[in-house]
Amino acid sequence: MLEKGNVKIGKAYCYIFDKQFPNDFCKTLMYDCEKRFRELGDIVELSFSEWKRPFYVFELAEDNEAVSGKTYDRLIKCRIHIGYEGEMPMVHEEAHMIAFQKMGQMPYAWSEGFAEYIVAKYLGGIEQLGGKYGNYTDLDYSSGIEVILYCLTHDDQKLFDYLRKNNILYAMSLASIIFFIESEMGKHQLAQVQSLITKGLFEELNVLLTEKVIYQWVSWVKNLKHTKTQR
Predict the structure, then answer these.
(1) If I label 138, which of 2, 145, 196, 214 is the partner at 20 to 30 A Cα–Cα?
(2) Angle at which helices 23-43 and 90-103 cross, to 10°
(3) Distance of alpha carbon 115 from alpha carbon 95, whole angstroms
(4) In sequence order, which residues have a C-beta less than 8 Å from that of residue 116 and are 6 or more positions away?
């Protein structure tokens, strides 16, 4: 990996760029990533002392290839075109890394949910998280409560992918659930949920979600949707 790339060291990441990327483009990418690190980290109150600087690899995407990204334990890898100016997929993958280093390893569904939550806050999407707009508000959650609860209390990537594919539960749905816990129940309750998730205490998590979260969130989203319709 190192021998095939142009290595640059930032405060937040150790960068490895495809050698075909112009130096000025690499500097721009670095500047953007370092700036986003501070802003994304602030969202989850991540201190720099908690941060273990990971590798950040930028590969050259083929002309007909869509940009893409992937996050590992200590590595972010993004494939982009020369001169690409968008923030995706970088900001999403960076959110995954920040969530991982702040909260620890999480099941796939929760990892996607927290990443979407962080990105939405970064982009100023409080209204989207709060259910005022977004495709996820149109889903019929009531008919799928049991499978949704099962998905949120088991580490089953295939099930979550199935739920997304069949319009039962999106990552943004879960981001909204996280926002609901924080805004309606308090940061202390969100911290408890995070603790149960990362410790794998899924039976306790199931009780908490069933008694205090899922049904209340579904009603919350329905009320917001009804309010929008009335307007």
Answers:
(1) 196
(2) 40
(3) 5
(4) 92, 95, 171, 172, 174, 175
pLDDT tens-digit series, residues 23-57: 999 999 999 999 999 999 999 999 889 999 999 99
From the number of C-beta atoms within 10 Å of its C-beta (0-12, 13-18, 19+), residue 17 rates as buried
- Give the span between the Cα atoms of 94 and 114, in whole angstroms: 12
pTM (2 d.p.) = 0.91
Q: Say if CB 16 and CB 74 are below 8 A apart.
A: no
Picking from 57, 9, 11, the residue whose alpha carbon sits closest to that of residue 34 is 11
